[in-house]
Write a structure and sequence with these properties.
The chain folds into 3 domains: 278 residues, 3-Layer(aba) Sandwich (Rossmann fold), CATH 3.40.50.620; 101 residues, Four Helix Bundle (Hemerythrin (Met), subunit A) (Up-down Bundle); 54 residues, no CATH class. It contains 15 helices and 16 strands. It has a 5-stranded parallel sheet with strand order 5-4-3-10-11, with helices on both faces. Strands 6-7-8-9 form a 4-stranded antiparallel sheet, covered by helices on one side. Strands 13-12-14 form a 3-stranded mixed sheet, covered by helices on one side. Strand 12 and strand 13 form a beta hairpin. Helix 12 packs antiparallel against helix 13. The longest helix is centred in the last third of the chain and has 23 residues. It starts with a strand and ends with a strand. Bound molecules: adenosine monophosphate and zinc ion (ZN).
Amino acid sequence: MKLYNSLTKRVDTFKENESGKIAMYTCGPTVYHFAHIGNLRSYLMEDVLEKLLRYSGYDVKRVMNITDVGHLSSDADTGEDKMLKGAKREHKTIMEIAKFYTDAFFNDCKDLNIKTPDVVEPATNCIDEFIHMIEVLLEKGYAYQAGENVYFDTSKLKEYYVFGNQSEDELMVGVRDDVTEDSNKKNKNDFVLWFTKSKFEDQALKWDSPWGVGYPGWHIECSCISIKHLGEYMDIHCGGVDNMFPHHTNEIAQSEAFLGHKWCNFWFHVHHLNDETGKMSKSKGEFLTVSLLKEKGYDPLAYRFFALQSHYRKPLTFSYEGLDQAALTYKKLKNKIAAIDVAGDIDAAKVTEYHDKFAEAVGNDVNTAMGITMIYDVLKDDELNGATKLAVLNDFDKVLGLNLTVKEEMETSSEDAELVAYVEAKIEERKNAKKAKDFQLADAIRNELADKGIIIEDTREGVKWHRA
Ligand code: AMP
Ligand code: ZN
């Protein structure tokens, strides 16, 4: 399998630490609001990566945190605590907000066929681990106390900019103009490991620590939670591109300083989903959620299909026209699959042949668009009988997660009456075309119906039809 690695900045042949086993970590959501479909693009592509690894025979353990404390609105150490902001907005406690939006996140994931990681751990469960790591960093001389906070000292590292491509401008990402620099920091990029109550007087979540009552910085949670569940060596760490700096850079700094060796080999970053005005953001007022798409009548899997049509390393622009197009293509594809005549025995050798081809094609840096193209190759392959086609598509769907062979539920009866009238008129039209020996038109009518999920069969008792 080949995978682009943000550390080496090229597509590398994937190599795991322990043969056949993969330790995989995903930065989880900050649960102060709904996830927007941009956030979910990242989780969706990470889900495909996990499923692809399993499909290729690896034994994967995947861990994800839930950020319910410490994430300030700037991504750096300035601005308001995001959870506090959510709690104020809704006049609820932070824990109520965290529970509500964690549940909402997993509901969205379920709608999008995103598997829940093997381990999900909220940051607030691991305060003792955070304190321990900070104590070790202080002991080793990588951290210092100033103004009642504890900071990581980036000048103690041989290399801080591990991803190597940040310009000064990018380094300022998220740092708002109206926030003054923290004068306690010895170096510009030093970051907070532990805040004390001096940061926010009304901080609701706080814990006792050797440095005073306070709460952890944002980055420490991912280092601690991953090491707790995956051990000292990690194979793949995932997130959206905006996580590269400062979050992932700081995770690497503190984890490697703590462990004393290299921590994670592969860094997988999903590029952003943008709307027509720019990067999607939760602070933009009304933003795009899965529930909103559902209210507008979209099948959430049409969004999954939309996302899988593009490569995860390219920014993707969302528009309703684009989604409509994807929804239509997806529906037609499902109808074609539903129209397959499931005759014959499954040809196991063919299923394996396609499995290997798919693993190789999609395994070339998670080429999901190629995976979709291969569905059409299977549908067109005359050497495959219906049963084998379905078996191959079910196999592909282990990675794509598009419910390719799941049939739609029957619609309501008033719509049925309209449908019956329409289908019968089409059958009559087709009969007339056949009588006139216009077989091309007759076939076109059959295909038109198939596109709408209606299958017609010529039997000795006349033309019969059913839903696919
Ligand atoms: P957050 O809930 O803000 O911590 O973000 C959750 C995940 O979504 C992180 O991995 C982010 O990098 C990612 N993310 C944020 N915005 C976007 C976007 N517009 N498109 C894709 N991923 C995003
Ligand atoms: Zn993280």
